[in-house]
Amino acid sequence: MAFDVYEIRRQFPILAREIDGNPLVYLDNAATTQKPQCVIDSLVDYYTRYNSNVHRGAHRLADEATQAFEGARDTIASFLNANKREEVIWTSGTTESINIVSHGLTHYLSAGDQVLVTELEHHADLVTWQQVCHKTGAELLVAAIDDNGELDIADFDSKLSERTKLVAFPHVSNALGTLNPIVELTQKAKAVGAWVLIDGAQGIAHEAVDVQAIGCDFYVFSAHKIYGPMGIGALWGREELLKEWPVWQTGGEMISSVTYQTATWNQLPYRLEAGTPNVADAIAFGVAIDWFKRLDRQAIEQHEASLLDAATAQAEDFQGLTIVGKSKNKVGVLSFLLEGGHPADIGFLLDRQGIAIRTGNHCAEPLMNRLGIPGTARASFSLYNTIEDVNALFEGLKKVKMMLE
Ligand SMILES: *Cc1c(COP(=O)(O)O)cnc(C)c1O
């Protein structure tokens, strides 16, 4: 299975776009990835041929929709090496997945308990636990990073105790690209009896994930950052927790039997999936994962690492540029500052040349404050990026620099 990036690119119609006469150079993959034609086709095919509500049909279309929908769940379960397919819950994305877990956790937290997160947290993971702590009287502790954006393991250790009920951390930081040692962190948290949630929104597209080998309790991610559609994501959680924790929303599908005064809950996964689900996007999510699984993972990892290495080398040679986030283990992201230019200006001036990056605090305002900066310009790489994209970024930055002077 050779990896040919130019062949891959042909499968992504959007990459052929031009922006004011410039070829699109898409380097905002940490915000969302583009979709291959097979994912786009899957959405059209669903609405063209077999749109139907699932699980309740007495007809052919309902059967076909249900089969494809539940088949997609199998695809996600096997991709994560989940013990059981029932452990995969459809959500609208990482944010909703974390909120479902936090809703359940609220039931088990009280004053005196602690929740441990890290300084790297995305707002979805930080604000959610922060608010759970406000509500329950539990205390939120935050494990420190060093100036390179690498987690301070000694500080993490010192903040773990029998009082820790939950530990949450990103697999990969969306702002800095830091790759956390998730197995080591999980083992430490488990040693004090804490539950572990891993925010896999970035990690899932770059690193192989085996939830049983990691040993965590929850792993959450969004389809749209791994070549699937927006509006769908997954919560993987250990069955014994998901089947006991309080239900999230109430309504159709999630019930077993109902009277006017009472109700009992359905089995997993349905007890956490109230109402008509996002069928088309779940199916297309499965198609995206099937597509991704057929590629040579080792070749992808090498390719993405070579892009980041090349970008880092050029950044280090670039006068007036400072790289933000220099952890030893890093994937997918080059965050930087340019002397004399606000990140927003850099983004604007690159966009005029067809180069798409992200600027700002990357949903990590406290992290930017910790680093003493207002935000960064961030280029983020995907398997369909090329060395030409990296070169275009730095050619573009040279022009930006001239324009700023
Ligand atoms: C994107 C992202 C989220 C939020 O994902 P949504 O798809 O917006 O719900 C959370 N954490 C990290 C690390 C992210 O990159």
TrEMBL record:
Q: Which cofactor does it need?
A: pyridoxal 5'-phosphate
Highest taxon of source: Bacteria
Name of one Pfam family that matches? Aminotran_5
UniProt-listed PROSITE patterns: AA_TRANSFER_CLASS_5
Q: What is this protein called?
A: Cysteine desulfurase
The family this protein is said to belong to: Belongs to the class-V pyridoxal-phosphate-dependent aminotransferase family. Csd subfamily.
* Record EC number: 2.8.1.7
Q: What does this protein do?
A: Catalyzes the removal of elemental sulfur and selenium atoms from L-cysteine, L-cystine, L-selenocysteine, and L-selenocystine to produce L-alanine.
Keywords of this protein's UniProt record, alphabetized?
Answer: Pyridoxal phosphate, Transferase
Question: NCBIfam families in the record, alphabetically?
Answer: sufS (TIGR01979)
Q: Which reaction does it catalyse?
A: (sulfur carrier)-H + L-cysteine = (sulfur carrier)-SH + L-alanine
Organism taxonomic ancestry = Bacteria, Pseudomonadati, Pseudomonadota, Gammaproteobacteria, Cellvibrionales
Stretches assigned to the Aminotransferase class V domain: 25-393
